[in-house]
Amino acid sequence: MDFSPSPRAAELAALVSAFVTDEIEPVHDAYHHDVAAARAAGEWAESPIMGELRAKARAQGLWNLFLPVGHDQPYAEKYGTHGGAGLSNSDYAPLAELMGRATFLAPYVFNCNAPDTGNMEVLLKYGTEEQKAAWLEPLLDGRIRSAFGMTEPGVASSDATNMAATAIVDGDEVVINGTKWFSTGVGHPDCKIMIFMGLSDPNADRHHRHTMVLVPLDSPGVTIERMLSTMNVYDEPVGHGEVTFTDVRVPASNILLGEGRAFEIAQGRLGPGRIHHCMRLLGQAEVALELAIKRGLSRTAFGKPLVKLGGNSERIADARIAIDQARLLVLSAAWKLDVGGPMNALSEVSQIKVIVPNVAQQVIDMAIQLHGAGGLSQDVPLSAMWTNARALRLADGPDEVHRGVVARLEIGKHL
Amino acid sequence: MDFSPSPRAAELAALVSAFVTDEIEPVHDAYHHDVAAARAAGEWAESPIMGELRAKARAQGLWNLFLPVGHDQPYAEKYGTHGGAGLSNSDYAPLAELMGRATFLAPYVFNCNAPDTGNMEVLLKYGTEEQKAAWLEPLLDGRIRSAFGMTEPGVASSDATNMAATAIVDGDEVVINGTKWFSTGVGHPDCKIMIFMGLSDPNADRHHRHTMVLVPLDSPGVTIERMLSTMNVYDEPVGHGEVTFTDVRVPASNILLGEGRAFEIAQGRLGPGRIHHCMRLLGQAEVALELAIKRGLSRTAFGKPLVKLGGNSERIADARIAIDQARLLVLSAAWKLDVGGPMNALSEVSQIKVIVPNVAQQVIDMAIQLHGAGGLSQDVPLSAMWTNARALRLADGPDEVHRGVVARLEIGKHL
Amino acid sequence: MDFSPSPRAAELAALVSAFVTDEIEPVHDAYHHDVAAARAAGEWAESPIMGELRAKARAQGLWNLFLPVGHDQPYAEKYGTHGGAGLSNSDYAPLAELMGRATFLAPYVFNCNAPDTGNMEVLLKYGTEEQKAAWLEPLLDGRIRSAFGMTEPGVASSDATNMAATAIVDGDEVVINGTKWFSTGVGHPDCKIMIFMGLSDPNADRHHRHTMVLVPLDSPGVTIERMLSTMNVYDEPVGHGEVTFTDVRVPASNILLGEGRAFEIAQGRLGPGRIHHCMRLLGQAEVALELAIKRGLSRTAFGKPLVKLGGNSERIADARIAIDQARLLVLSAAWKLDVGGPMNALSEVSQIKVIVPNVAQQVIDMAIQLHGAGGLSQDVPLSAMWTNARALRLADGPDEVHRGVVARLEIGKHL
Amino acid sequence: MDFSPSPRAAELAALVSAFVTDEIEPVHDAYHHDVAAARAAGEWAESPIMGELRAKARAQGLWNLFLPVGHDQPYAEKYGTHGGAGLSNSDYAPLAELMGRATFLAPYVFNCNAPDTGNMEVLLKYGTEEQKAAWLEPLLDGRIRSAFGMTEPGVASSDATNMAATAIVDGDEVVINGTKWFSTGVGHPDCKIMIFMGLSDPNADRHHRHTMVLVPLDSPGVTIERMLSTMNVYDEPVGHGEVTFTDVRVPASNILLGEGRAFEIAQGRLGPGRIHHCMRLLGQAEVALELAIKRGLSRTAFGKPLVKLGGNSERIADARIAIDQARLLVLSAAWKLDVGGPMNALSEVSQIKVIVPNVAQQVIDMAIQLHGAGGLSQDVPLSAMWTNARALRLADGPDEVHRGVVARLEIGKHL
Fold this sequence. Notes:
- The structure is a homotetramer.
- The first copy, chain A, is an alpha+beta fold.
- Chain A has 3 domains: about 5-125, Butyryl-Coa Dehydrogenase, subunit A, domain 1 (Orthogonal Bundle), CATH 1.10.540.10; about 145-255, Butyryl-CoA Dehydrogenase, subunit A, domain 2; about 265-410, Butyryl-CoA Dehydrogenase, subunit A, domain 3, CATH 1.20.140.10.
- The first copy, chain A, is built from 13 helices and 9 strands.
- In chain A, the strands form 3 sheets. The first copy, chain A, has a 4-stranded antiparallel sheet, with no helix packed on it. Chain A has a 3-stranded mixed sheet with strand order 1-4-5. Chain A has a two-stranded antiparallel ribbon with strand order 8-9.
- In chain A, a hairpin with a 2-residue loop joins β2 (about 165-170) and β3 (about 175-185).
- In chain A, α1 packs parallel to α5, α10 runs antiparallel to α11 (about 345-370) and α11 crosses α13 (about 400-410).
- Chain A is globular, with a radius of gyration of 21 Å.
């Protein structure tokens, strides 16, 4: 057992960390000011700061670092990934944590943000050459962004087989109908393509009824109806949209992997994505813990700094223990993915999806409490961080579904 | 022991409940639409719906129901309180719960909202005839609103002796300087007066250094600098403001009770207010539990309604148990206030201030989770309710301070 | 709403409290010494101290106080119940809490211990005159003790319909076969009778298959196989036994209420019993909290008394809040039982059965922790108290079953 | 990062696991029967089974496996350690978990039990050649056992500087006075020596007042006053004793390391010991989880196996997540000890000491609950396992002290 990072991971961590501290943090407020100003003017617009940061990051080779080893040639070399070869999940995970420290900017800066990363992975693994040329390369190149259409408003999407929007093959076309919501990213001006998951054959068995199709967002019949808030936040300019599809027609060549094979793709897609989400959340939790301690040292009540009052120090200890345990679990899941693939890490990936958002939520809540009323306000980033953690207890499968997976596999050992 | 409500309380509960259901709920969305539209246009404005609802409520005698028995004559009769005499805390508490079911409207509709209620109580108990005529009567009459200036941005306000803004007597005037924030209500166009708590004599003993002064918001030197969000919400048109005071001068006759007597007032002020807050939160928790069950019955996953899946039914049971226990504790605290005054209920009032916001927050969080992603969105009221509960873990004293009070009194029994 | 006790309850509380303090506590250690000495000598024997205490209690009319109003004439007068009439559940509940402070002695001293109380209630409500003369009167008179045979080793007894031991009517006899365990009280030399619940007609509907029969423990074919420990404790001389029944024959006149009517009896039997258990546990929790604070004040570490270290004071506050909430819930359940009978308090009785043992367990655990290693030892009563609370999370239905009842009733409101 | 065990650790794990399964488990009940029979006869005696198992284990080289690398030559070779060289903490940790599966036997069988392991480490690191010959060699050889005298009845021993028993140098002797309790192991007939920690110079600075001395238990003036229970369990034949020392005189050459250097020794002693304790507890937690699932699959209520009812499957998932996280944290702490010594793992060692006993306690409690009343009884090992976990929340420092260490180090990063 060796808990030290690989030399390549350690080197990249130093670069990413420096970039976050030296380049992103200083312009963080200006970026959000730009976006808020645009929105106040009735517009969802990207700040020019983003383009500048992306150019700088790419120039340093800090670009597409998520690209998974084994599927990356020749893309890693062509699209700037540092060193020209993909990283293992284990090696990338600590970088995701560092990006998570500036989670509302850094993943975009490094072209490592969801859902683009998952979509690029799908295209890498399952895309035809034509699909790759059309969508993967512009995504890797940072020219466009993408969305993923899965969750629907009318059904319990926690059971993915409930999905009712349709993708029916009609000759050499696919006809798309229905509504998706919480499609993250569709608010961004650069968002051009959605991977849409729809019901194609209701008579097939439960896990072969659905198909994934590439649907350009400018296709006739696609309408972004509105943007949805999560705990009062819209995450502009990215956003979470409700999108309707009315007799949308795309070529059958836009189907990914094959009709009825959506679940096959979905299963492979989510492992690394959950590692990324969880590590970013741990980056957030670390920031929250630091803020809590700094505040607790600088404010005094009843004659003592807050960290010395009542159970505050115990809560700080509990936060450290919870974060360290959760990180080790994510790193172990990443390692299991690396050595044995998604089927080797089924339980682990669900375990981290349960525990990490809960840990992050609790640590951030504790940090808010130590800040007093100001902790709730726009003056500190804790409310946005909390919202992000809370939303991730539902996104990519609610806690309850993942607990169910873990329980099923555990009980299965004794059947 | 008799857990049934008094006949008067039962009768009023029926009236308030019917008013909330028949009058308020049908216009709830329209009200919020008005306010949002105003804000989108750059304005914080009250909706005309509020005035109409208030007129109706007042016509039914459902007005100023919070007015505490014993201090209410002749106001109860004059300002419409049902039956012409104040209610005990025990009798009012269930009405506050019912108002809490529509918590962002009902308390205002019935002229029973914080901080006006607490301010009116202070004026009733400690105001001079002149002060009552100038401020209490317009408040009871619903012509103006008020704010309370206590929390400050630069210090840990959980220890109220930290308050640094000054209120210095200078001849027959008081000179006010400093900054208050999270002053709830200052965003409302009708808000005209603040009860300001400031340091008047730093050399006095810890609990006699501060003074309460009535400060009209249109006094020269008073500036509302900005509105503060709580978890991304601004609660317009009420709002929580940051207010600066620069050499503000008001007549010394605006002092309440006397120089250096702010803590004496504060101690008596908060008991009933905390009963109100807690009962309203329990109204919210009941709504959340109902929403959770209805959603859990109507959505199906893995072949079953959500309420039958995993631990969902246990969480529903736990919510019921937690709410019922918390309500009994609040009612018992109200009864102790009634029979023995604030000093008789010191521990109980702190106990409810700890437990109720936490219970409400957890029940609402559970309801969000049962709703899936939609639970986070603007389509259901749960995110606003959650924010309200979370904020009340800090407002009127953080959990930690109230736990400290309970512990001190408990340990004191054995000294 | 009036949270004060009735005058009769207040008067009795003073008497019971004084008796516990003045008579029971001084001989507590001597009593346990006697019992332990007997056991070391291979015997389960009652200490003579018990008889002396019972005589004194009875002489003061502190005897059979549990006797439920409405079913008690003429027994209350004849068998010493104070004042000659039964108490309501509300009035008895605070007395049970006081007895709980010396829970391993006081309930026996006052002839108010489980399962005798529940058995006497059953006989009062459902017994024939002959059954009452034979078993109720000696029980009320304190001449004998009794057991209740429900739980079985081979099935999940949490679902009472699983019970497999049989009670088959054969002419004018009933034939009993099978095994019961955790039959509390069978270790005591005075235990003479068991109310046995057995399967009498497997073809009847689920709730009419079982019958309750009075089985004298000296009937041929009844064997106490062994005594069972709970968390390493045997609770001698009372004990929890495993009892086998092999072709045991008793007259059919020993059937209670009628063949197939066991569930009807069971439903009514458990409401008051759960009130008693819960109040006694709250008495224990209060003792534990007092011990914790006294220890926390008297021991010093790192220069401070333990109560001032870290989160200890918060835990004391949390204990006070949890106990007070739980007590109010039990009192409210008792009141609902009094005003509307068992069907009026179904949810409440299950609610208290979930929450109170958990609260007691946690408070006692906290008290152990504050005592350090000594808290685990024979030098303080905390380990025995903890075991008692833990066992009550299973006895009379596990937490999970009662949560299920609460959830079912709650969800049922929306069906 | 590489989460796979080293080849040597993997090989040994297979051997230890087979030995536990094939040799220890079959005689587990017989062993406990022997011990209980002896105790019923008034004696604390070892079962002959222990000697037989130890001989077999030693013959396979499964002996003294805890011996730390770097301090072990020539002992590892001489005293049977497999392969003739010590194991790193990382390599030993998984073996400790396997031993923990049969925790009341296996550690003794492999001569890897506390407190002998810690005492042997102290002798290895700090003992003179004479001390090693006299006490280390017989311990390694399994001829004797040992105790550690630290905790005292009259003070809060969580603050070790409170220790009041004295060890005063008087010429070439040391004079020992005072009382120690919870001295584990003194009940065993083979226990011959105690490492005693006593106050030698009250005027020295806080961490140089105490001295460690080797005190043979047959020294005049040493009296084992009584054995202490932990949650009603005596752990015979090992036991936890209260030992008084009255003018006990031992040669000054029995001092370890030097006068006033007890804290220096204590600091180094506890790291590996806590790794061992925690890993053994995780072995217990795994057994409890297996028992819970097996029971939950085999028992049926309300028409379903228990694992499918309510929140049971969620609790199983939570147990798996908690165990896996805790294990990774322990392994990471072991690795940090290996690469940087005790000062490199101060926070980590305290972190695991907080989290692991709590996780084990909760998992075992869950398993008890799933077993119903039988889970509390002597028929399943869960009550003994629970007691062991509970006691370890106090032994080697209570949760609160270790949380304090973690908090202090965490806050220290920001000072």
